[in-house]
Amino acid sequence: MLTIGLSFLDYFFSFTEFRAERVENDFFKICRTPELATKVTMQPIDRYDGLLDASIIFSDILVIPQAMGMEVQMVPGKGPHFPEPLVLPGDMAKLNVTVDVNKDLKYVFDAITMTRHALNGRVPLIGFVGAPWTLMVRCHIIKLCFEMLALDSYAQIPRFCFLLK
Q1: Which of 135 and 141 is assigned the larger pLDDT?
Q2: N or C: more exposed end of the chain, with fewer CB within 10 A?
Q3: pTM for this one?
Q4: How far is 47 from 56, CA to CA, in rounded Å?
Q5: Contact by Cβ (8 Å): 54, 4
């Protein structure tokens, strides 16, 4: 068997079936629709039947800031964009910190359940979660990264954390 030979980015950018799905559905619609997330998650498993060790649930770390009230756009040819990124510690007040994950992220749980049933034990289903540091960095610098200021942006993160005290 191959170890998980398709990284998420390889899959995202080059997998024919996924690209065809993206013609009809935007990235976050696929994330928020359990049937579509299951379909996309199953594509490499079905294509490479018996050759992969696991399946990775189709979702994204950016659904968490969305659930917290941040607008996140997936800009074609560029990637994710926060129209209003967290720049100053006071910006944290804009966030909804009382997220009901069972309601606001139910679609993720439903996609996991639906995909697990679709896999029917063929391979394990794995997923990744966003740690607080990762989420904060993404929400703070993602806009700047796509404006080609990534190094300067990363340098701002410790200052941002210090100001939170």
Answers
A1: 135
A2: C
A3: 0.77
A4: 14
A5: yes
